[in-house]
Structure formats: C-alpha cells, structure tokens
Design a protein that fits this description.
Layout lengths: L1 E12 L2 E12 L3 E5 L6 H8 L7 E6 L2 E2 L13 E4 L11 H6 L8 H5 L1 H21 L15 H13 L5 E5 L7 H16 L4 E5 L3 H7 L2 E6 L2 E6 L1 H5 L2 H8 L6
Parallel strand pairs: 3-8, 3-9, 6-7, 7-8
Antiparallel strand pairs: 1-2, 1-4, 4-5, 9-10
Bound molecules: adenosine-5'-triphosphate and magnesium ion (MG).
C-alpha cells in the first residue's frame, strides 16, 4: 500500500533547481533512503514534505491527504514527524523536557486555559516520553540536562521528540551524521526497530553508505535535484551512473 506519493516535484531557489521533476512512491512500512552528493536536494525534499518549502510544481500526497494544502505544523496531525540535519535541541533543558517539546497536544489552547487538564496531560505525556526514551535505551538519562551530553545521545533525543507524537511516517535527515562507528550501528538498529516494532514508515537521508545499504528496502539517488536511480540497495550499488557520479570506490567496499 502506498503511504507517500510524490509527483513531478519542482523546487527552484532563484534559478537553482533544488528539485527537478522528482516523482516516487513510498509504501507503508518501508525504510526508504534518499542519498546523493551535497546540494543534491535531499533536505529540500524533506522540507517540501513537511511544508517548510512550497514547490513551484508537483504534488505530495500522504494517505490521500494533499500535503501541499496544509500548514507545516499540521503535518504532525496527519502522522508525519521529522528530525533535522542540525540538532534542534534546547541544551539548557532536561532530556525529558526536550522530548516533551514534541508532544503536539501541549500546544493546544484547551490545555493552556485548563490547568488541571494540563497537569493530567503532562503526566500522560511524561509517561509517553519515558516510554520513548526507554525504547531508545536512554531512559536513565531523563533528568539530565542535554548540555554536555554526548552527541550520540543528543541525536537520540531528536529521534525521541519525533516519536512522541506517534507518527505513521518519520523523516530522518542524516541521523548518523557526526556519530562514531558504534553509535552508527546503534542508529541502524533503532531505525529497523522503529519500522519493525513501532510499525512506522521511515524516510532517511544519509551519507553513510554502509548504514544506508544495511537498513534500506529501497534507495532513491538524487543528483542536482534529479532522480538518478532508484531501487533495492544491491541495484543502486551496482548502477553504473551511481558509481560514476558519487559512490566511487565506496560502492565496492
Ligand atoms: N532555503 C533555501 N534558499 C535558497 N537555496 C536553497 C535553500 N535550501 C536549499 N537551497 C539550495 O538547494 C540546493 C539543494 O540543497 P539541499 O539542502 O536540499 O541539499 P542536500 O542534498 O540536503 O545537501 P547536504 O547533503 O549538503 O545536506 C542547494 O543548491 C542549496 O543551496
Ligand atoms: Mg541536507
């Protein structure tokens, strides 16, 4: 079953074609990766999906909802959440509070005006946040301030914040960037578990080829905003254009 359907997407920034006629579908429960050289349009594609960028042409549908007709903050309501290429954490807050920032209902007017509901809601959300932190293996850190925590933990907090709203699909922009080998292995396991245990469709942008090849059901390769290749890891890895353009020797590693 198709979860996400992107058709003929064009996104220009003052003459720069960040996305040039991009079309693909992602199925429910897939781990779908976007790879490509720097500036090839990967983050722009994520920005179009969650409404930060408005493409000049094309359509994006998620479970029949036209994502181009809704506001960025409404994408969560429709089951889409994301993590960012650059950390969006608040260092002087605890891990728990950083995760709670993702609990969308906290922003609702009802809760603001009815403090007794807020208290109950806060307890419910804290329990959910702890569950998510536990799932990610960092539940014991919840009262620590984020400032000074290892980068690997900070990246997990980003993921936790995206998971607390119980998305149907998560967009992860370079989840392993800046991580050491051990942390990268851990991220690979977590991405697989997000799909296998939580049943969430995963879109990943990543430069780490070993990670991408090990976790993806399918991979889409972007080059200068165009789709260069798409398919299973083994197909993409052996695609002559992909090897020529940017995988180079890594493809045969
Ligand atoms: N908000 C913006 N304003 C102007 N140009 C932009 C904007 N966002 C992206 N671009 C341009 O669009 C192109 C694609 O950028 P994008 O950030 O999507 O690439 P990327 O594939 O995510 O690269 P990286 O691997 O370095 O993160 C680049 O030429 C970039 O400079
Ligand atoms: Mg990017």
């Amino acid at each position: 079953m198709d979860n996400l359907k992107i058709q003929n997407l064009h996104m220009n920034f003052s003459g720069v074609k960040a996305l040039d006629d991009v079309s693909f579908k992602v199925q429910k429960g897939e781990v779908f990766s976007l790879i490509g050289p720097n500036g090839s349009g990967k983050s722009t594609l994520f920005n179009c999906i969650n409404g930060f960028c408005i493409p000049q042409q094309g359509s994006i549908k998620f479970e029949n909802v036209d994502l181009l007709k809704i506001k960025p903050h409404e994408t969560v309501k429709h089951g889409i959440s994301r993590t960012f290429q650059n950390l969006q954490n608040v260092p002087y807050m605890t891990l728990l509070d950083n995760v709670l920032l993702g609990a969308h209902r906290r922003l609702s007017m009802t809760d603001t005006f009815n403090r007794w509901i807020s208290q109950k809601e806060r307890e419910r959300e804290e329990a959910m946040a702890l569950e998510v932190l536990d799932f990610l293996g960092i539940a014991n850190f919840e009262k620590k301030y984020l400032s000074g925590q290892p980068y690997g933990i900070q990246k997990l907090v980003e993921i936790a914040r995206a998971l607390i709203c119980k998305p149907k699909m998560i967009l992860m922009d370079e989840p392993a960037a800046g991580m050491n080998d051990q942390e990268t292995l851990e991220i690979a396991k977590i991405i697989s578990e997000i799909r296998d245990i939580l049943g969430i469709t995963v879109l990943v942008v990543e430069h780490d080829m070993n990670l991408v090849m090990s976790i993806s059901d399918r991979i889409c390769v972007l080059d200068s905003g165009k789709i260069l290749a798409m398919g299973k890891p083994v197909e993409v890895k052996n695609h002559p254009e992909v090897i020529k353009v940017f995988l180079g020797d890594e493809a045969h590693a």
